[in-house]
Amino acid sequence: MSPAPLIERYRDRLPLEPNDPVVSLNEGSTPLVEATAISERVGARVLLKLEGANPTGSFKDRGMTVAVSRAVGGGAEAVICASTGNTAASLAAYAARAGIHGAVIVPEGQIAIGKLAQALMHGARVIALRGNFDDAFAIVRELAQRHQVELVNSINPYRIEGQKTGAFEVCDELGEPPDALAIPVGNAGNVTAWWRGFSEYECAPILYGFQAAGAAPLVHGQPVAKPETVASAIRIGNPARWEDAMAAFTSSRGRVEAVTDEQILDAYRLLASSEGVFCEPASAASVAGILAHGMPPASPGGDAPETVVCVLTGHGLKDPDTALGKAPAVIRCENDAGAVERAVFD
């Protein structure tokens, strides 16, 4: 029997109206997996929160179920977003589930093929913009003001409310909060949401946020005009939740750091080959970060975290092109038992 939908489990902690429908694909309840090899490397207990196990393959479903449920309850007949891919896929699925129209604006040539396929198959109208995510986001904000359409990017407060449930699940499963949380940072909505969840559970793990070096506005303290990184999901130069995220890092006595594409891809391969976990490149930023920067204590002379949860935001099948480009080559073989034997065992 599958677990109850996220909204049903946490409705008393979500700002929905009594008559709002539950637009759900049974999201949430994602696995929390021990990472033995990574734990040995960092000298602490590392657990992986596999958000790629959500229905459309990313953490976005947590927020989308709440945002679309509230939108439908409020009479909306259409939803719109700008996206680097995962939000587009999630919006399209939940719009289809709700029986309303969905439209997504994506940067042309900068969306992973798996995410594009999802958005198209779910029936959303997909517009490829000759610009980057930040350009697309500015346009959808303008369109949402001019038309009767619900904007469901991370500035939508119901998105944050849904995503905070990841923190609830971690605390419930562990029986206590972790000492620290490591999380990729793109538009900064997810780190904002996790901190809200921990705060509502009256706990304060250290937050370690990691951005790609080519798209690290929070690290540099200023927007990045042309963000570049292999981790397309966090290729964002001017995060919508900038101030909220920085407040979360400050309140948790944590920090935000940058990791290079090489470090991200090394962690991406390590997770797959040593932990059996296939995530998209952006997800691996959380693991890359603790491997590259360690896990400093909240204050000088304090105790280093003993338990850290790394949030893996999306499934590896979201971006098959990157996987195939970085994986070993397929071994071609003649139709002969001896040839196959040599290929397997030599």
Question: Could you give a quick summary of the protein structure above?
Answer:
This protein has 346 residues and is of the alpha/beta class. It contains 15 helices and 10 strands. Helix 5 (113-121) links the parallel strand 4 and strand 5.
Question: Could you tell me how far the N terminus lies from the C terminus, measured between alpha carbons in angstroms?
Answer: 45 Å
Shape: globular
Which blocks of ≥5 consecutive residues have pLDDT under 50? none
Query: Largest sheet at a glance?
Result: 6 strands, mixed
The top level CATH class name of the largest domain: Alpha Beta
Give the oligomeric state: single chain
Q: What is the averaged pLDDT score?
A: 95
How much of the sequence is in beta strands?
5-15%
Strand segment count:
10
Helix content: 40-55%
Based on secondary structure, the structural category is: alpha/beta
CATH topology name of the largest domain? Rossmann fold
What pattern of helices and strands is seen along the backbone? HEHEHEHEHEHEHHEHEHHEHHEHH
CATH architecture of the largest domain: 3-Layer(aba) Sandwich
User: Taking Cα atoms only, what radius of gyration do you get, to the nearest Å?
Assistant: 20 Å
What count of helical segments does DSSP give?
A: 15
* Overall tally of domains: 2
Name the strands of the widest sheet in spatial order: 1-2-10-7-8-9
